[in-house]
Amino acid sequence: MASGSLAEATQSGASADARPGSARPVVTRFAPSPTGFLHIGGARTALFNWLYARHHGGKYLLRVEDTDRARSTEAAIGAIFDGLSWLGLEGDEEAVFQFARTERHAEVARKLIEAGHAYRCYMTQEELAAHRAKAQEERRPFRLVSPWRDADEGSWPAAEPFVVRIKAPREGETVIEDLVQGTVTVRNEEIDDFVLLRSDGTPTYMLAVVVDDHDMGVTHVIRGDDHLNNAFRQLAIIDAMGAIEGWERPLYGHVPLIHGADGAKLSKRHGALGVDSYRDELGILPEALFNYLLRLGWGHGDDEIIAREQAVEWFDIAHVGKSPSRFDLAKLQNLNGHYMREADDGRLASLVAQRMGGTANLDLLTRAMPVLKVRARDLNELAEGAAFLFATRPLPLTEKAAALLTEDARARLGSVHEHLAQEADWTVESLEGSLKAMAETLGIGLGKLAQPLRAALTGQTTSPGIFDVLVLLGREESLARIAAQVATPAGSQV
Fold first, then answer.
1. Alpha carbons 403 and 15: distance in angstroms, whole number
2. Closest C-alpha among 27, 119, 32, 47 to residue 77
3. Taking a C-beta distance cutoff of 8 angstroms, is the pair 194, 204 a contact?
4. What residues are annotated to the active site?
5. Which residue ranges does the record assign to the Glutamyl/glutaminyl-tRNA synthetase class Ib catalytic domain (predicted)?
6. Is the pTM for the entire model greater than 0.85?
7. Which sign does the torsion angle of CA 124, 126, 131, 136 carry?
8. pLDDT band with cut points at 50, 70 and 90 for residue 490
9. In 10 A of CB 17, how many CB atoms?
10. Helix then strand then coil, % of the chain, to nearest 5
11. Could you tell me if 212 and 167 are in contact, meaning their C-beta atoms sit under 8 angstroms apart?
12. Which residue has the higher pLDDT, 267 or 241?
């Protein structure tokens, strides 16, 4: 735990992966705030909740915590839902919107007041500031002791503004058997009488979360460990409502946050982008990001490649580590390369065509995928690798490709053109045999023909196998590209 935090965890190890009771099927939830994109940490939280529910045959729900009306936007809500859908993490029921439940939250606050578990606090901002200043002067933590905590209802001012505060327990301690962190204990004297309803009657985050979790039937709260301190305050509400209406505590699993590869807090410089950026800008496949997020803080032996179905079978909270995981973009890209090699050629061709403006020949792209996808780690590299297929003459050359096309090389290309023009069987096997025979006749290595031929056909020094390139381009286009370079002066890059 961070220094100075409310909670102090014991080193007893994580609790068993269990349900709160056989009569309560597992219900998890992911509850993002729509103030921005679906970031990588939020996506992993959603994934762990989805997997836990699926593993136990339970239910996974979504809740949009949109009570911050100034910062919540429809665009952010759309981006979050879009990212979840892309990863296959849609909720099992229609999403709940927290702001629409404001009256229900206030209803619970009123019940707490009526039962003596909460109270109206009429302290002014000046009085609160004075209490904080005194605590600071005495160098002690600020714990509010409101004179209104035990005041009779008859003493309430008729028309003065007030907030509603919980009557937090003052004695004893609160213990959480956290499924990730283990046994975590807080002395109740450290829990302040926090606000439930603001002076304008709107609920605070603490109250809204507790009420929504209860009403949604949530049995397991799996979230980042930056919320661990919140759990103790939220339990004060849950236990109070338990005394009134029998509310049950959920089980908690507070997952360590994600850090960068250097161990520092994850930021944009580490690759902490929105999920949509991994898809749209970096060209990552959803199954690759799913697998990578799964392995960020959770493991199953030495297994690295874990399919969705296998993840559901294997996932448990007990194997989520207590230490922060480290995000490594290069590892994600390498993993993505594996999933690209496994992906359906037609699907990849369609995704690449979108990156090429949708004008590329989809049939040609599909036929090219087997030789292109083995060379790429992401869809961007795949699109770059496919660009030569649709280049127009005169073919632009990279600097290295132009350097290969010396006067001698162009002379050989002229001979290659004449040789290939006589080739009737335009297949990989036939072309390979024909050019190898030509190289032997000339007394040179095949590379002396293949390297300038690659430059002439693709404008680059790297490409799929040269015979695959010839077949993909076809007889007419291949011969035309070779002829164009034969006719171009040596040293030209056009």
1. 65
2. 32
3. yes
4. 268
5. 26-333
6. yes
7. positive
8. low
9. 18
10. 50, 10, 40
11. no
12. 241
Burial of 399 (0-12, 13-18, 19+ CB in 10 A): exposed
pLDDT tens column, 426-449? 999 999 999 999 999 999 999 999
Note the pLDDT tens digit of each residue in 137-171.
Answer: 888 888 888 999 999 988 999 889 999 999 999 99
Q: Which amino acid is at 136?
A: Q
If one compares 6 and 80, the residue with the highest pLDDT of the two is 80
Starting at the edge strand that comes first in sequence, how are the strands of the sheet with 182-187 ordered?
8-9, 182-187, 173-178
Count of alpha carbons within 13 angstroms of residue 184, beta-carbon side? 25
DSSP 158: S
Domain 399-486 has CATH 1.10.10.350: yes
Top-level class of domain 8-258 = alpha beta
CB-based contact 416:386 (threshold 8 Å): no
User: What SS3 class is residue 120?
Assistant: strand
Task: Measure CA of the first residue to CA of the last residue in the chain; give whole Å.
Answer: 62
Query: For position 434, what pLDDT does the model report?
Result: 95
Give the per-residue pLDDT at 3. 35
The pLDDT assigned to 21 comes to 45
Residues of the chain with CATH 1.10.10.350: 399-486
- At residue 217, the 3 state secondary structure works out as coil
List the structure tokens of 110: 């009123």
Binding residues for ATP, by number, are 268
Tens digit of each residue's pLDDT (9 = 90 or more) over 223-265: 999 999 999 999 999 999 999 999 999 999 999 999 987 888 7
Nearest-angstrom CA–CA distance, 383 and 283: 10
pLDDT of residue 68: 85
User: Please, are residues 446 and 471 in contact by the beta-carbon 8 Å criterion?
Assistant: no
Is 447 in contact with 439 (CB distance < 8 Å)? no
CATH 3.40.50.620 occupies which residues in the chain? Answer: 8-258
H-state helical runs in 115-166: 125-137
Binding residues: 268
* 434 alpha carbon, distance to own chain's centre: 50
